[in-house]
Amino acid sequence: MIFKFNPKVFDIDDSLVGRDILALILNFFKDLYLWDEENLYEIFGDPTSESLFFETRFAETILTADMRNQIRGHLKELFLKSAYITSAQKFYLTTICIGVEADEVRPADALKITNTSSLVLVENGTNDWNFIKGLVKNYKKHPKRKEIYKLISKALDEHTLIENHAGGSGEMVKRLKAIVEGDLAEVFKFKVLVLFDSDRNDDKSINFEKWRTLLEYIKGSTFNENNSAEWIWKESDLLRWHMLYKRELENYLSSEMLIEALDVNTAISATILGLGPRDLDFYRFSQHMDQGMKNQIPTLFMNDGLREVLENRCSHHRVPLDLPNGILEEVSEVEKLLLNIAKII
Length: 345
What we know:
four-stranded parallel β-sheet
């Protein structure tokens, strides 16, 4: 995430706020967030000259003389770290403004954002997480948005992005309520994404009965299953979520990969190979799997060189993506999912 501070927050006469701001500054040096470069100049001025920042109430009451000297000594490093923020990062990552105004994030909540791992709630913690890790592994060298996907990969490696096994619709709602009403009550919108299968039989419907409870909780209203515009996340929703377009995880793999893994007979192989791309999206491969195979299939997403397979499997249901330059690009659904995840890290 990218943080910026309302300059007025440094002159608030509140020691608790001051201590939270100090902790946030220290967290920046731990690479727990990015600091907007323009905001740095607004707060500190020219790093080569004495800064008015050291005359703020925060600096005078919270910072010791040694702390002030340390910050002075690291100002160039501070600016250098922020100078590498790209236009893509500004566009695809979440930027929050820290302050005490109604539309700002309070310092204590911003501190919680930096100190809490981002969560992806999934139906199956092991299988769905192999899917996510495989996507990240295969897209972190993407020619257009690799800098974003590398940040997700870094979050995975450092365990600041983790899965949360939540089970089916009813269990997901219970887990979400515990999060929304618990310690993350003020920040869950910044830290949580829900991912689940569509379990659909075709591209005209979803398994509404399975997901009714969850979708109506997220939407905060009755869910219109016949309106496909409601099948995707909107800004007004409780938090970020992504329902897979295809039936289940395995439907994102090629028919050749699945036939080899499933070791099915000739007749079933012929049936699968005879399916077109759209029929493959909704074919119930699970009918040919026992639980052991069901757990093994998601590990295939960790294979190297899978991005081409995923792009081919998603080529017939591209989705629009806004670009930093203001134009639209048609991209695969899995990219849209990854960029959704980027919003919570």
